Task: inverse folding
C-alpha cells in the first residue's frame, strides 16, 4: 500500500491512533514515518505501531516517540511506580524507572531543564582518560546487547539500545 | 577587600546507588546498607562523624539544620536518614534524604571552584566504591527529574540589605531568573529572608557541564553584587538616617536585656552593613556569621547547656550577643 501521507512511496509502518474517541489509521513510508510527530500527546493513544520490518534508524526514532503516550500506563517492574505517578509528582521510584518511562521523562525533563542530554561528569571520570575508557566499555556492552536483541527479533529493545549507542557517541537527537 | 555581600558558598551533588529503590521507596535495611557503604567509602578520606536521624534528639537535629549541615527534609521526612560530617564541618554527606546521597561542601566567602574541587574529589572516592545510578542520556539519576544530569546545585549565600530595603529584590529575582538562577530565603524555602540573607543557586542541572554551572552562578553573582553595591551607594545619600539606624542597632545589641531570634538577626544585619560602610570595625566577618548561627534557637539552647524556656533563651541571647559583639565589633566614631 502506498503511504497515506505522501502517496509516493510504499508504506512500511501502520500507525493507529485514537483522537477524541475516534480511531484513525495511517500507513506511512520510511521517510514520512521519520517526520511523523503527534501533535497533542495527551489526546491520543497509539495502539499499534509496526506492520513490517523497518530499518533501524527509523524504528528507533518512531518507537521512542510512539512510546510516550502509552508509557503513562506502564508500571516499573522493579519498584511498581506508574507513568501517571511520575507525571503527577515529578518523582520516580528507582533507577530502572528511567528506562521504563524514558520517553515520558525525556519530555518532562526537556521542559524543565531545556535539555534532555547529559554533558557533565561521568561516574568513572576522575580524568579524561578514564572517561574515554569508560565510554568505550559502555559502548562494547551496548553493542553486545544490541546483537542479542536483534538475534532474538526483539526490535523494540534493539531500537532503544541503538538510541543509547547514538547518545553515547553524541549522535542524533538525544 | 571584604564587601560584606557574599557570606558563603555551597556546592552539592545528588547521587543514587544503582540497584536500590530511591529513598521514598526504600526500607530500613537497605537504607542502613547504603549509609554503611558511604561511611566505609569515606573513612580513608577524612574523619567523618555519622549521625542517624532515628538516634538524634530533636534538639541535636535542629542544631545541625541551623548550621546548614542537614536539610529540614532529612530531619522531618527521612526516618532512615543519616548524615556524615567532616571534622572541620565543611563537608556533609546526607544519606537517604530525597536521594540516596547528597554530598555538599560549604566554604566561607565566594569559593565556587574550591568548593566544587573538594566535593568532586569526595564524589570520585564515593563513585569508586559505590556504583552510582547513571545513564549516558540523563546523567546521574535522581528521584526527582529536576536534579537529574550533573545532580549539582551551586549556591551562594548573599547579604542583600540595600536591595531589600529599597524594594528592589523582586526585580533582582526576575533578572537572575532569566539566567536560570533561583533566589530563596536562607532559613527555608519560601521563608522571609531573615537578616537580608538569600541563597542564589542554579536551576538547571542537565545539558550543562559542572563548569558551565559554576560559570553561570558566578555571572549571576557578579550581577547581583554590582546591583547591591549601587543600591548601597543610593542608601548612603541619607547618611544621618542610615548611620542612626546602624548605631541604634549596636546600642540595642549591646544593652538589651532580652533578644528574640528575629530581632537579633535584623540588628546583626545592620552591624554587617555598618561594617561595609566603615561605621563598625569587624575583626573577622566570619565571626559575625558564627554569631548569627549561634543566635538560632537550637544553638542557643546548646550554648545554655540545659533545657530553657523561650523567655530564658531570649535573656541568654541578649547576654551572649552583647558579650561576643564587644570582642568582634568596634564602633567607629
Result:
Amino acid at each position: 500500500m502506498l503511504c497515506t501521507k505522501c502517496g509516493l512511496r510504499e508504506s512500511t509502518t501502520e500507525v493507529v491512533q485514537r483522537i477524541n474517541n475516534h480511531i484513525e489509521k495511517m500507513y506511512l513510508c520510511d521517510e514520512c514515518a521519520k517526520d511523523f510527530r503527534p501533535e497533542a500527546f495527551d489526546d491520543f493513544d497509539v495502539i499499534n505501531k509496526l506492520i513490517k520490518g523497518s530499518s533501524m534508524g527509523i524504528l528507533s526514532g518512531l518507537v521512542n516517540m510512539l512510546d510516550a503516550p502509552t508509557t503513562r500506563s506502564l508500571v516499573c517492574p522493579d519498584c511498581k511506580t506508574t507513568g501517571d505517578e511520575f507525571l503527577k509528582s515529578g518523582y520516580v521510584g528507582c533507577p530502572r524507572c528511567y528506562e521504563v518511562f524514558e520517553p515520558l521523562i525525556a519530555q518532562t525533563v526537556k521542559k524543565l531543564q531545556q535539555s534532555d542530554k547529559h554533558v557533565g561528569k561521568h561516574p568513572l571520570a576522575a580524568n579524561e582518560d578514564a572517561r574515554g575508557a569508560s565510554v568505550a566499555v559502555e559502548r562494547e556492552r551496548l553493542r553486545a546487547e544490541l546483537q542479542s536483541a536483534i538475534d532474538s527479533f526483539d526490535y523494540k529493545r534493539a531500537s532503544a539500545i541503538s538510541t543509547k549507542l547514538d547518545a553515547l557517541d553524541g549522535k542524533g537527537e538525544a | 577587600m571584604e564587601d560584606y555581600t557574599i557570606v558563603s558558598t555551597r556546592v552539592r551533588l545528588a547521587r543514587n546507588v544503582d540497584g536500590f529503590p530511591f529513598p521514598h521507596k526504600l526500607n530500613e535495611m537497605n537504607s542502613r546498607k547504603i549509609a554503611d557503604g558511604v561511611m566505609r567509602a569515606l573513612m580513608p578520606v577524612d574523619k567523618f562523624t555519622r549521625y542517624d536521624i532515628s538516634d538524634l534528639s530533636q534538639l541535636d537535629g535542629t542544631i545541625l539544620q541551623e548550621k546548614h549541615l542537614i536539610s529540614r527534609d532529612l530531619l522531618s521526612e527521612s526516618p532512615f536518614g543519616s548524615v556524615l560530617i567532616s571534622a572541620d564541618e565543611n563537608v556533609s554527606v546526607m544519606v537517604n534524604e530525597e536521594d540516596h546521597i547528597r554530598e555538599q561542601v560549604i566554604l566561607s566567602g565566594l569559593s565556587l571552584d574550591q568548593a566544587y574541587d573538594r566535593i568532586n574529589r569526595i564524589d570520585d572516592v564515593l563513585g569508586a566504591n559505590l556504583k552510582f545510578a547513571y545513564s549516558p542520556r540523563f546523567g546521574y539519576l535522581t528521584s526527582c527529574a529536576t536534579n537529574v544530569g550533573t545532580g549539582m546545585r551551586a549556591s551562594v549565600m548573599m547579604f542583600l540589605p540595600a536591595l531589600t530595603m529599597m524594594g528592589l529584590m523582586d526585580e533582582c529575582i526576575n533578572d537572575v531568573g532569566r539566567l536560570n538562577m533561583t533566589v530563596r530565603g536562607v532559613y527555608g524555602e519560601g521563608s522571609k529572608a531573615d537578616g537580608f540573607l538569600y541563597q542564589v543557586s542554579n536551576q538547571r542541572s542537565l545539558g550543562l557541564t559542572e563548569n558551565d554551572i559554576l560559570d553561570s552562578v558566578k555571572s549571576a553573582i557578579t550581577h547581583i553584587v554590582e546591583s547591591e553595591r549601587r543600591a548601597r551607594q543610593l542608601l548612603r545619600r541619607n547618611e544621618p538616617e542610615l548611620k542612626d539606624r546602624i548605631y541604634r542597632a549596636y546600642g540595642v545589641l549591646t544593652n538589651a536585656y532580652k533578644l528574640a531570634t528575629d530581632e537579633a538577626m535584623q540588628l546583626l544585619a545592620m552591624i554587617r552593613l555598618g561594617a561595609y560602610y566603615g561605621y563598625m570595625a569587624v575583626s573577622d566577618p566570619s565571626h559575625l556569621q558564627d554569631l548569627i548561627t549561634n543566635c538560632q534557637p537550637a544553638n542557643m539552647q546548646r550554648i545554655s547547656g540545659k533545657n530553657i524556656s523561650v523567655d530564658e533563651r531570649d535573656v541568654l541571647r541578649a547576654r551572649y550577643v552583647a558579650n561576643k559583639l564587644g570582642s568582634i565589633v568596634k564602633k567607629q566614631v
In short: Residues 128-151 of chain A form the longest helix (24 residues). Chain A touches chain B through 37 residues (CB under 8 Å). Helices of chain A lie at 30-35, 56-71, 83-89, 97-100, 102-113, 128-151, 155-168.
